[in-house]
Every structure is written in C-alpha cells, then in structure tokens.
Amino acid sequence: MIKAADLPDALAVFPLPGALLLPRARLPLHIFEPRYLQMLEDALKTPGRLIGMVQPCERASEHGLYTIGCAGRVTQFSETEDGRYMVTLSGISRFRIVQEVSGFTPYRRCEVRWSGFERDLGRVETDSRFNRDVFLQLLQRFLAAQSLSTDWESLQDAEDELLVNSLSMLLDFPVEDKQALLEAPCLTTRRETLTTLIEFALRGGSEEETLQ
C-alpha cells in the first residue's frame, strides 16, 4: 500500500492517447519504444515503481499534455523474445502536472502535485444512487450497436467501482471524453458521465461534439 508521503514530487510520464488509468484499476501496456523501455527500467529501480499515464493534447497546456493524469505502479511485467515488455500498471492516484522537468532521460518527466486526489488512496468507492439494472440495459444497447459482446454475469457481480472504472477504461471514446472520465471527482460523477457518453453515442453523436 502506497501512502501519500511515498508519492514523489517528480514522475516519469507516458503520453498515450485514449489509454485511461484509474485508481485501483489495472491497465495492460505493450512497451517497445527504446525511450519507454528505458523509462520502465528506471521505474523498476525506484521503491514505488511508478509511471504516470497522461493523455497528449496540444491545446490542453503549454506542455502539450492534459494537466491531470494517473500514476500506476508496475505490478507485473514480462519480456518477449525480441525485447518488448508486457506490463500491468495498477492505478494508485491521480496527479496534476506543475511543469515539465528538463534532464537527460529520453522520456518526459514532470513535477507533479497530488493534492486534491486524496480519495484515490482511500477505500474502494461505492455509488449509492447507482441503478444497475437500468445502466446494464443501456450498456447492452450500446454494445449491440457496436457489435461487441461481454461477460454479463461478471458485470452483474462486479462491485460498483470495478464496473464503472473498467468500462470507462475499456470503451472506445474520444480522448476528450476519456479525460472527462478521469477528472470526475467521485465515482457517482464518473458513472453519470459514462452514462451520458453512452447515451450520446446511441443518439449518433459525432466525435466533434465531445464533452467539455
């Protein structure tokens, strides 16, 4: 268990559009670029083994990155015969980028702040207003429209946070909408945002009409 005092002031960041990591969730990554192989090697040498996932966006800030990302701890990794790595990041806490740090690493590093995201290090969240039956009916329509299938028994049995966060990470939404899901202050807000995005997609909304 990582505590707030263990979180670093600077963090290696991995800009990857559409790759959403949320606290207490897991994100599989396929790492093969030399700079990110170096990032992984350096992260594994640190006590926290943390990597910051952040989405690129040229208009979001002077750094070309959204200012809010989520740090994940490397909890699993395996190397392929040709030197690539299959990695699993376990979400620890969101962070806010203060400024990019110059240095000699081939990957990007940023000074970050963790304040405002204290609940990320706390207990699993619940959603007291979650009408699961109505939500799953909506999800079923969405998946059918996308010609996708899923394990409905697992979805029905999943805890609120696991269900909402897993769908937020897995469903294919534009980068701006993924960021809105990341920045939701609590599970209820994220579930409401996710519901709105699914309803919007079912109405045939275009990618230009994303959430602001």
Overview of this protein structure:
This protein is an alpha+beta fold. It folds into two domains: 4-121, Roll (Archaeosine Trna-guanine Transglycosylase, Chain: A, domain 4), CATH 2.30.130.40; 132-207. The chain has helices spanning 34-44, 132-145, 152-157, 160-170, 175-183, 187-202; strands at residues 10-15, 26-31, 50-54, 68-79, 85-101, 108-113. A five-stranded mixed beta barrel has the order 1-3-4-5-6. It is globular. The model is unreliable at 207-212 (pLDDT under 50). This is Lon N-terminal domain-containing protein. It holds the Pfam family LON_substr_bdg.
Question: Secondary structure elements and their pairing?
Answer:
Elements: E1 10-15, E2 26-31, H1 34-44, E3 50-54, E4 68-79, E5 85-101, E6 108-113, H2 132-145, H3 152-157, H4 160-170, H5 175-183, H6 187-202
Parallel strand pairs: 1-3
Antiparallel strand pairs: 1-6, 2-5, 3-4, 4-5, 5-6
Helix pairs in contact: 2-6, 4-6, 5-6
Please sum up the structure shown:
By secondary structure, the protein is an alpha+beta fold. It contains six helices and six strands; from the N terminus they run E-E-H-E-E-E-E-H-H-H-H-H. A hairpin with a 5-residue loop joins strand 4 and strand 5 (85-101).
Tally of DSSP helical segments: 6
CATH topology of the largest domain: Archaeosine Trna-guanine Transglycosylase, Chain: A, domain 4
Multimeric state of these chains?
A: single chain
Number of strands: 6
**How much helicity do the residues have?**
25-40%
Order of strands side by side in the largest beta sheet? 1-3-4-5-6
Summarize model confidence as the mean pLDDT.
90
Low-confidence stretches: 207-212
Hey, roughly how much beta strand do the residues contain? 15-25%
Terminal CA distance reads 34 Å
CATH superfamily of the largest domain: LON domain-like
Supply the helix-strand structural class: alpha+beta
* Count of all domains: 2
Shape: globular
Indicate the CATH architecture of the largest domain: Roll
Largest sheet, strands/sense/barrel: 5 strands, mixed, barrel
H/E series: EEHEEEEHHHHH
Computed CA radius of gyration, to the nearest angstrom: 18 Å
**CATH class term of the largest domain:** Mainly Beta
